[in-house]
Design a protein that fits this description.
3% of the residues lie in helices and 51% in strands. The chain is mostly beta strands.
C-alpha cells in the first residue's frame, strides 16, 4: 500500500555526517543547530518586440546550506581547512608549545617537560602577572643571564626566593592532536547527511526520522570561529553541487522514514 506522508513537524537535527565518495566518514556532528537550506535559481526572460514579458526560461538552480555545531568540532574544522586532524602517537609525536609560571624557591627550576631545545629567554613577572625583566639564554658563545641543562634552568643571580617567573618553550608529546590551515589546501567536498527527529502531524506521539542528503556538498572555506566567551558555536556552510555525470542530476534528497524510533 502506498504511504503518502505529507505534513510533518521537525523537532531537531540529531546529527550531521560528512563522508567521501566511498562513504568513509570524515566527520560526524551531534550538536547541530540552526540548519538552513537556501534555494535560488537563474532564469532567462523572454520578451516580445515591445519588451512585454512572455515567460521565463528556467536555466539553473543553486542550493546553499548553513548550520552551527553547538560546540567546537576538530573534525569539522579539519574539513573546512581541507586537511585531516592529526593525532599524536608514541611513534609519531607532535611538537607543542607550553607556558610555565613558577615561584622561585631556590637557585634552579626543573621544567615540567623536556624541551626540544633550550628556552630562549625567561621573564620575571610583575605584580599584575605581566612580563617584566627579561633574561636571555646563552647564544653563540655569548654568556647568558641563565644556564640550562637537561631540563633544569639555573636562575639568574638577581632572582630571589618568592619571585614569580615565566618561561615558554616547545616539547614533544604523544598526548595531543592538531589541525593545520595551509595556504594551498582548501575545504573538502563530500556527501552531507543530516538526520532529523520529526513527527507526523496526524500522529504526534510517534517519533520518526527525516534525512536531508546533499550528495555533492562543497564546504565553504569562509567561516567565523569565535574562540571562547559566551558562544561556543562552530558555524559551517557550503553549496550543493549537481552530480554532473548522473542522469537524474540530484542536488538534495529529503527522505522521511515513517518507522517509529526505538527508545
Amino acid at each position: 500500500m502506498e504511504h503518502n506522508l505529507n505534513n510533518i513537524i521537525v523537532d531537531r537535527v540529531l546529527r550531521g555526517v560528512f563522508s567521501d565518495k566511498n562513504d568513509n566518514i570524515i566527520f560526524a556532528l551531534n550538536q547541530v543547530q540552526n540548519l538552513s537550506l537556501n534555494s535560488t535559481s537563474e532564469s532567462q526572460e523572454v520578451v516580445d518586440a515591445f519588451g512585454v514579458s512572455i515567460m521565463e526560461l528556467m536555466r539553473s538552480k543553486a542550493i546553499e546550506a548553513s548550520a552551527e555545531n553547538a560546540i567546537y568540532d576538530l573534525g569539522l574544522l579539519a574539513a573546512q581547512y581541507g586537511t585531516e586532524k592529526k593525532a599524536a602517537t608514541a611513534e609519531n609525536k607532535l611538537t607543542v608549545p607550553t607556558m610555565e609560571s613558577f615561584e622561585v624557591e631556590g637557585t634552579t627550576y626543573t621544567l615540567k617537560h623536556m624541551p626540544t631545545s633550550m628556552p630562549k629567554a625567561i621573564y620575571k613577572l610583575n605584580g599584575d602577572s605581566t612580563l617584566g625583566a627579561k633574561y636571555e639564554a646563552p647564544t653563540n658563545g655569548k654568556e647568558g643571564d641563565f644556564t640550562y641543562a637537561d631540563g633544569i634552568i639555573t636562575l639568574p643571580s638577581d632572582v630571589k626566593a618568592g619571585d614569580e617567573m615565566f618561561v615558554m618553550y616547545e616539547y614533544e608529546t604523544e598526548n595531543a592532536v592538531e589541525v593545520v590551515n595551509s595556504a594551498n589546501e582548501f575545504a573538502k567536498m563530500g556527501k552531507m547527511t543530516f538526520e532529523c527527529l520529526v513527527y507526523d502531524v496526524c500522529d504526534p506521539e510517534t517519533k520518526i526520522f527525516a534525512y536531508l542528503i546533499l550528495p555533492r556538498f562543497q564546504l565553504s572555506n569562509d567561516f567565523d570561529w569565535s574562540i571562547g566567551g559566551d558562544s561556543q558555536t562552530h558555524g559551517f556552510s557550503g553549496k550543493a553541487h549537481v552530480d554532473y555525470c548522473s542522469r537524474d542530476k540530484k542536488m538534495v534528497r529529503v527522505v522521511i522514514v515513517d518507522e517509529e524510533e526505538e527508545e
